Amino acid sequence: MSQTRTPCRTRRPRQSSARQATEKAVYRIRNWREYNQALVNRGSLTVWVDQEALDAWLYRGPNRWGAQYICSDAAIRCLLTLRAVSHLPLRATQGMAASIFELMGLDLEVPHYSTLSRRAVELAVGLARKSEGPLHLVLDSTGLKVYDEGEWKVRKHGYSKWRTWRKLHLAIEAETHGIQAAMVTEAGVDDAEMVEPLLKPIDREIAAAAGDGAYDKRKVYRVQEHRTGTILIPPRSNARIWKHADAPGPPLARDENLRAIRRSGRKAWKRESGYHMRSLAETGVCRMKVIFGDHLASRRPECQVTEGAIRGRALNVMTHTDSGVYVRGATYGAAQVERISLGTRHTAR
């Protein structure tokens, strides 16, 4: 009686020795006392309702048609920031501010929640940038929910209503992790289309900018010629040279990147060019969603733009007050030590 043999499973190929030798860097915080206190300070009301905001609480601008403003833009920014950090609706934000002023004994007008909603439409929000010198930017975008159902309900019963998303575009400084620009658009807006609007409000020199393959478009490189010194974007796998060597004029930065990839390979180009700093954009997106969530509280598109800028400003305040000192090495006790304090890096051997 013949026996049927079951086909044996093919073993997965072993990783190459180079892959096995690659160890993920380990980060350890060395000043837990100071870092812990910085995290505690994030919940302090004096960080978000400071004396500077209280001094500029009342409106002192020019008169306008109709009813005059009572509270200044600084007051509206202060309360909207408190709302974003505390994850409160507008009505609860008004109640919290009123109770804070009552406990502090301050005779200040608290804006009505409807006033907060109306004033947020045209509110100018600065991002509280504090870095100096040329910028090294990393660009990325992420989706934020406006209307959606819970994941558990969708898994059990499927979708039952239309979902609405917005896209948050970020320009983050690699050295300090500060948000240099933050814009909220419709979900279908192309990432490359938002590069020029992101860089326009930045009035400092941009030494380099890095982004993923979604930014490999001509419109991005046209902006790069006028604003940035170095552009680090990996061309797509089927990329072709745009401007050959016999063409007049200087070579394109994108073509030089493509030639380097053809010579040494994509992984070597990423390592040698410093492209891996783009992963800091993923870190910034993760921090934004962990702290503020993946939903937008505002419903009007204009207010959603303001909410995105408010979140970027609040995240910068948290970044500037943090003082974590990290040790980086391939393994514990490695020779290379990298000290990151208040966004500055010092390498010692």
TrEMBL record:
Q: Give the lineage.
A: Bacteria, Pseudomonadati, Planctomycetota, Planctomycetia, Isosphaerales
| Source taxon at top rank | Bacteria
Query: Which species?
Result: Tautonia plasticadhaerens
Q: Where is this region: Disordered?
A: 1-21
Q: Which residues form a coiled coil?
A: none
Q: Where is the Transposase DDE domain?
A: 41-149
Recorded hits in InterPro entries, A to Z, give: Tn903_transposase, Tnp_DDE_dom, Transposase_Tn903
Instruction: Provide the protein name.
Output: Transposase DDE domain protein
Q: According to its UniProt record, what is one Pfam family this protein matches?
A: DDE_Tnp_1_5
